[in-house]
Amino acid sequence: MQYKGVRFNMTADSVEYESFGLTPDVSACCPPSVSQLSKNGPVPLVDHTYKLYYGGSYKRSDGNSSRVVLDGAGKVYAIVADGSRKDVRNAVDAAVKAQPAWWNLGAHCRSQIIYNAAEKLQSRRDDFISNLTVLYGKTDEEDASKEVDTCLSLLFHWAAICDKKQLAAGDSPNSSVLVNVRREPLGVIGIVQTPIQSPPGPWALLGFISLFAPAVCYGNVVVVVADSVYPTPALEFCEVVQSSDFAAGVVNVLTGDSNTLLNTLVNHQEVAALWAPGITATKAKYIEWASSANFKRTWVDTLPCFNSLEQVTDCRELFELYSTRTKAIWMPCGEIFAN
């Protein structure tokens, strides 16, 4: 199978495995002091507090700390919660409790819920377009409109895919044996969203939906570390999740330092898989090393192109491969069992 995407060079400098995550990710750090913030303009009047979302509701960070989000022009846009290791553990606990019920709902019911989320997003289309335009520091809403419309198409697409699996084949080379193949979800999938900077970029909302939607489509639950540069679109979409029929704990979104959250998420024994497509080579190397403790399935080396619905559908088998495991039942049905 071939997929449209970018293959990254996985060579990296030496990684300090034992100390990874103990220091912040400098590349994603916001200005550390108020004096530096004043250079980019005054702190805006905040009419909406961005909190962490897990367990079906918005919650403050366990450390009661926050971080600044800058828009595309370098001005202060919002203040979001700075998630801690305890928040990651709480989110994973909520996800573990929600996964069996989410899978047992059945494909048709999951399809209806994702479709309902798409309808709710469509009703708030203008709000998301306006917010994305301001966040990216642009004056034209054309790019933001294209991004939101693509997100809507993605949600409707994955809602239709829930009960249509491509990789479950039942053919056997032995005619006397019948093979029943079943695709089952992995469980809790940790997702580290990396910024998508492909033109016209940066696709913060599209990058979130393109990863979370296929994971929950196949019966998994997710703990997402939102885009470290533009985390607010994912948190705003959680309002759509909260007003839809998603059970508490199915979708969990954290914001904060990517190194700290990644370290806790990849070392958590209840997390069955970790997705971080497009992540830096150093972090990818650490993920592969840390995931070996409980044989997590990892996805770190391919960044699919999500600029259109057609490019996502080309990666459908890839998503199914990383979202599910195969179980096969071999049933003898030859002459001995003819009666």
From TrEMBL:
Entry-linked Pfam families: Aldedh (PF00171)
Organism expressing this protein natively: Cryptotermes secundus
Record GO terms (molecular function): oxidoreductase activity
Domain Aldehyde dehydrogenase, first and last residues per copy: 64-299
Protein's name in the database: Aldehyde dehydrogenase domain-containing protein
